[in-house]
Amino acid sequence: MKHEPIITIVTAPAFLRHDTGGGDHPEARERLTVITDRLVEGPLVNQIRHVLPRPVQRSELLTFHTEGWLFRFEEAVLSGRTYIDHQDNQVCYDSYEVATLSAGSGLVGVDVAEQEPGSIVFCQTRPPGHHAEPNQPYGFCFFNNCVIAARYWQHAYNRRRVCIFDFDAHHGNGIQTAFEEEAETAYISIHEHPSFSYPGTGWAEERGIGPGKGTILNLPLAPGAGEEQVVRLLPKIRLFLENFQPDALIIGAGFDAHRDDDMSGLAFTNHLYRLLGNFVKELAVDLTDGRLVSILEGGYNLHVLGTSVEAYLLGLTD
């Protein structure tokens, strides 16, 4: 009888406590409940186990963020502020604590990936992280979950060459900030072209700086791009990674490029998300001895987010 792989979902009820002010804000707590509901109802239900995250330690946050930002974020929520810097970045009293737990989900994911080689790990978390800069929030993001997980993988397990592959509809400006001057880290991003999309970064010409020259691969897509255009990029991504030779792979798994998600003009489908799952699993098997962790980024249409995540996880298990 065929052995079905176990999928480790790192998540916690506490993520629902991050209150973004009601139904008008796209980064709502219901994002996680629709994923959970779909996975419970779908074909993967008997393969899933849930693991709780741990709060990230301050020293781990400081591997990317500044002390000034930590103090400013904590002070803002304790003083009753409802947003920080921009109304996109809605917060409540619990948001700092929840954000430390969100950043910690990737660390637990890394532990699982190291202790159980070849495991399928998905961090079902919020708030997301890839826009967060060292000293300020951007685009619903407060702590850069993917970068903090990468630093942890480097420091705790000495996996020095870490790559983040991000297929969220928007460019991860914060990840690029972290990695663009380093030779031992790499960042690949498929996103809607910055001429049309937030945050306006991620031009193909941005390839890294100094020692990091050549370690950034931005692959911007025109509005309307979907499966055909993405599939054409996959050999380029594989060649980039074969040249880089990563020790570990982190996926910024955003689902707002879906054709029904109005947060972008891209036209991804669930079939494409399954293909992306196939692709990254093959990369991990071939290049990192299976060391792979996926961390939820965007995805805001509640009618398709659950099935998009399910399709990606099915791709990882194929």
Structure description:
This protein has one domain: Arginase, Chain A. Strands 2-1-5-10-9-6-7-8 form an eight-stranded parallel sheet, sandwiched between helices. A two-stranded antiparallel ribbon has the order 3-4. The mean pLDDT is 97. With 318 residues, it is an alpha/beta fold. It is globular, with a radius of gyration of 18 Å. The protein has helices at 30-41, 58-61, 67-78, 95-115, 145-157, 173-179, 227-244, 270-287, 305-317, and strands at 7-10, 48-51, 83-84, 86-90, 120-123, 162-166, 185-192, 216-221, 248-253, 292-296. The two termini are 16 Å apart. InterPro entries: HDACs, His_deacetylse_dom, His_deacetylse_dom_sf, Ureohydrolase_dom_sf. Residues 25-313 form the Histone deacetylase domain. Belongs to the histone deacetylase family. This is Histone deacetylase. One of its GO terms (biological process) is epigenetic regulation of gene expression.
Topology:
Elements lengths: L6 E4 L19 H12 L6 E4 L6 H4 L5 H12 L4 E2 L1 E5 L4 H21 L4 E4 L21 H13 L4 E5 L6 H7 L5 E8 L23 E6 L5 H18 L3 E6 L16 H18 L4 E5 L8 H13 L1
Parallel strand pairs: 1-2, 1-5, 5-10, 6-7, 6-9, 7-8, 9-10
Antiparallel strand pairs: 3-4
Helix pairs in contact: 1-9, 4-5, 7-8, 8-9
